Structures are given as C-alpha cells and as structure tokens.
Predict the structure of DUF7918 domain-containing protein.
Amino acid sequence: MLQLRTFRAGIRVDGEFLQAYDVEMLPEENKVTCWVASEAGKNFSVVWQDLNFTRHFNLLGELKVDGTWAGGKLFKPLLPNQPVSSTLISAELKFVNTSPTTARPLAFSKLQTTDEDQYLKSAPSGLGEITLTIRLVAVLGVGLQQGIGSILNTKVHERSKKAFSHCIGFGDETTVPVQHAVQVQPLTQKPFVTFVFKYRPLDRLMADGIAPALPLLKRAAPEVDDGEDEKPDSSQDDAMREIATLREQVKKLEVKLINARKASGKRVKVEDSDVIDLTCC
C-alpha cells in the first residue's frame, strides 16, 4: 500500500494488494503516484486507511476512475476513549451504485477502439488512472444514493490504442440494501492527500522498464545419485583389467630385454618414465 502522512491506500484484486511500481512522492501537492498491473476481466477494490487514532473531524475519500467520479466513503470523528476498530479507520470501495438498490463491481476491462473520427479526441483526461482524494469536509445531510451512471466500455479512437489497452468497466449488476448518501461540503481547497494509481497491463509495464522483467527459467540439472553403494560402470571394470594386463606384459618385456642385453654384454637402463609404444602394426 502507498502511504503519505497518516493515510494508506492500495488496489486489491483477489484479496491481495497489487504491487506498486515506480512510486513517486510529490510533497508540495500532498500526492503520491505509482503504477499497477491491470488484468482485463478482474474485479478490484480501492482500500484506504487513516491511522490517526485521535481524528476529531470528518474526512471524505472520493474516488475517480478514468476521470469519472465513482463514489466515496466518509470517515467520522473518533470519540474520546472510543475503542479503535478497522471499520473506523479503514474504508473499501468496490462497487459503483447504479440506483439506491443496485450496484456493479469495479473491474478492469479491455478498451474499445473505433476508427470513427468523432472519437479522435474523445479519450477522457484521466484515462488509465484510479485517483483517490481525501478531503476535510462538513456534513450537511443525508439522502438516498443516486445512480452514478455507466462508464462501462470506454471507447476511444484506434490511434489511442498504443497508449492505452485497458479501461475501467463494471461487472454484472447486483441487488444491494438501500444505500444512503451523505451530502458534504469541502472545508479546504487543497486535499489532505491524493493517491494516483496509473494502471497498464503487466507486459506493457515491463516493456517500458517500469516493472522488472520476469526471470528466465533455468533448466534443471540432471540428478546425480551420490550414494555410497554406487557401483562402477561395467565398461570401467573392463578398461581397468585391460590396463593391468598390459602393465604385466610390459614388465615381462622389460625383464626379457634386460636378460638379452646381459647376454650380449651390454647394459640397458630402463627409466620409470620411459614410454613404451604398444601399438601393433
């Protein structure tokens, strides 16, 4: 998860937080940016936490996906001596409301392209980004949650496909309990913190040098049995016996040669290092 001040945030898929690559801190903007790997067809959620256990004000976490507002969650003030639980310091947004009683899960989707000229400049400014902004707010009232509207299957001109291949879409619509929305008013122009998750397919991140390349698989070395009871190969036994036989023949020839020289009155010195060619013609 990314962290700035007392706040943490991350993208969760299949119960695990996505690895953040090339994290960049922008203190003057109270902002953190990073890259994450997207996989088309996978549902995801955005999780954030405030680890300030003495919080005495309202905080709103607002989510934008591909530049479109997708809802938010409110952190209420913590009361003095109030036991701190995960529900008070942690929030998760994984659905977009389509009505007060229906919602659709957030998901990564394949970007639709077209060759129609009317889409030449249609790509939203925030395409390829999931942005979480946390602000100090005042609560004005409560009402029924309204449908945010569909942002499924964002369509852009095919010339934009080189830069983008995924977008944010929705999963199948489900029925949910009646949802209420809190009406708020920002108390400051500058947000407390902003987290920006720029998403691309993993192979694109690796090609751009943002994510490390996958390690090459090495071939496993053949197993060698080093047991003490291993027997020598039969061919080795044959070779050793042949060498012993040849050595005996050499010794006999040396003795025969010495005796022959003695009989002729000449002496021959046989050095241990002499090499005798036993090759037959």
